TrEMBL record:
InterPro entries: ScpA (IPR003768), ScpA-like_C (IPR023093)
Presence of keyword Coiled coil: yes
Recorded coiled-coil stretches: 120-161
Protein name: Chromosome segregation and condensation protein ScpA
PANTHER family noted in UniProt: SEGREGATION AND CONDENSATION PROTEIN A (PTHR33969:SF2)
Alphabetical keyword list: Coiled coil
Organism: Methanocaldococcus fervens (strain DSM 4213 / JCM 15782 / AG86) (Methanococcus fervens)
């Protein structure tokens, strides 16, 4: 087995390599594309029986979460833009009292959530902060952290999950909210349903609520779905 002894910076090299190979803008990194590249790179390294450190595996999980958040934010921005379009078209002149003033519309646009560009350096610093949070609690939660690493490593290997996505969506439609750790108690279940949860969030069918990395995860059916 090949031992990669430069794992401390390997994940950084993989991210920068992905930006270069996929010809991404280093001043406005596409999180979704770099996450896909990173996960694919891990799969390739594992095929060559290369042993990867916990940091490299955990960064894969962090990037997947960031990808989910980025895609969800894009959906929110599109929804707000659609609302403004219909608002402009369907308010009539005679409804003077209910029609928003120009100053109100301007204020709404200024307050509207916009996508902030993320540079490669900012991305790396954000990931480093998340890794440090995990390491600080590692001594107290060594067993739990190890399980998380193994779960992320296994979910990277998942291929056909369309049936699992459909099953999870049916449960959400029926129940509305699922508390991830309470519903999926075994390690195998958590591996099985993690990526499908991200897919539902990316598709705008569910909302993932998690205040802390690896903390309690709530899956909520979106009311607009």
């Amino acid at each position: 087995m090949v031992d990669v002894n430069f794992d401390i910076v390997l994940w950084v090299k993989m991210i920068k390599e992905g930006i270069e190979k996929k010809n991404l803008n280093p001043w406005d990194v596409n999180i979704a594309e770099i996450a896909d590249y990173y996960i694919q790179k891990i799969r390739e390294l594992k095929k060559f029986d290369i042993r990867l450190s916990a940091d490299v595996i955990l960064v894969g999980g962090i990037l997947l979460r960031m990808k989910s958040e980025a895609l969800y934010d894009e959906c929110e921005i599109e929804e707000e833009e659609d609302y403004e379009y219909y608002e402009d078209d369907y308010f009539y002149d005679e409804d003077v009292e209910t029609k928003p003033k120009k100053s109100q519309k301007k204020e709404k646009k200024e307050n509207k959530k916009t996508k902030k560009p993320v540079t490669v350096d900012e991305l790396i610093k954000t990931i480093e902060k998340e890794l440090n949070k995990v390491k600080k609690s590692r001594k107290k939660k060594e067993k739990k952290t190890k399980e998380v690493e193994e779960i992320i490593e296994e979910l990277i290997e998942e291929e056909d999950i369309s049936d699992i996505i459909a099953e999870l969506l049916e449960d959400l439609i029926r129940e509305g909210i699922i508390i991830y750790q309470e519903r999926f108690r075994t390690r195998e279940e958590r591996v099985r349903y993690f990526i499908p949860s991200l897919y539902l969030a990316n598709d705008g069918k569910a909302e993932l609520i998690q205040e802390k990395l690896f903390g309690e995860l709530i899956i909520k059916l979106k009311s607009t779905f």
